[in-house]
Amino acid sequence: MRVPIPEVHGDELVWRRVQVPVRDVAFVRGVLEASEGLACMFAERGGDLLLVAPASQEATLDEVVQDFRRELGAIVTRVSGRGGMKADALRV
Fold this sequence. Notes:
The chain is of the alpha+beta class. It has a single domain (13-89), classed as Alpha-Beta Plaits (2-Layer Sandwich). The chain has helices spanning 25-34, 58-72; strands spanning 13-19, 40-45, 48-54, 75-80. The protein has a four-stranded antiparallel sheet, covered by helices on one side. Strand 2 and strand 3 (48-54) form a beta hairpin. The termini are far apart. The model has no long low-confidence stretch (mean pLDDT 84).
């Protein structure tokens, strides 16, 4: 059953849309679960993910996303937040 990714509103949360290879989705979930309270992950299909974090964790979320880019070849497709990851950090 396909469940659409929710929309995120408000200044309390920041989010990153990323794409990773399907085989790496469980790894991403494991990293986020091991980083207690960092972010929640939503997946609509395959490796299309939405990572949502408290605004206070934006810098840490960006570090983890950059690690996913380097290690997994993750592609950041959209960014929302207070000033973290900039458009030039996107690889689309």
